[in-house]
Amino acid sequence: MLASIMFRAYLNPGEKILYVAHVHPFTIYKSFLKHLFFGFALPGLFYLMMPPFWIVWASWGGIGALYMLLFYLDWYFDAILVTNQTIIDLEWTGIFKRSSSRVEYHTIEGVAYEVNGFWATVLNYGDLAIDRIGTGSQIGLKDVSFPKTAEREIMSAQNDFMRNKSFREHQTLKDLLAGMLQDYSNK
Length: 187
Description:
Helix content: 40-55%
Oligomer: single chain
CATH topology of the domain at 2-23 and 78-156: PH-domain like
Order of helices and strands: HEHHEEEEHEEH
CATH superfamily of the domain at 2-23 and 78-156: Bacterial Pleckstrin homology domain
Radius of gyration: 24 Å
Structural class: alpha+beta
Distance between the termini: 56 Å
Number of helices: 5
Number of strands: 7
Largest sheet: 4 strands, antiparallel
């Protein structure tokens, strides 16, 4: 439900999010700890040592909170959305720089993942790659949480989409032929 609200700007009418793939939190812990230390712990320590300058330390902590919020949003909006219509690759590198690209299910040649290393195996994260037909290009996400699940969800959504598309095309062709036979029999 949160994903539907947060990512609603990227969705077409009638499009529903089936799965969201994010970067594993373990891979960004160094940056998180750095933001936490310089944004909260250091101003808190300075406040304990020099309480009369509390306005400076409170301002520093407020700026640290803002940086933590931006850090979280950057992590949250770097994602791959698997929807009932397409795959959307999102990249968010700040408030004023966002990008998204769509991959239609009928243009997907293959989906692969790679888990490389001890911590990646233990914590279940790896790289996800989606190959496009004919272009030789890939989209993907490094250090995605549960890459096998992400691959399975993408393949399942692609199969469902292609089965529904085939059924719709079959039904359209059947209706067209029925209309042609009815027109022919009326003559």
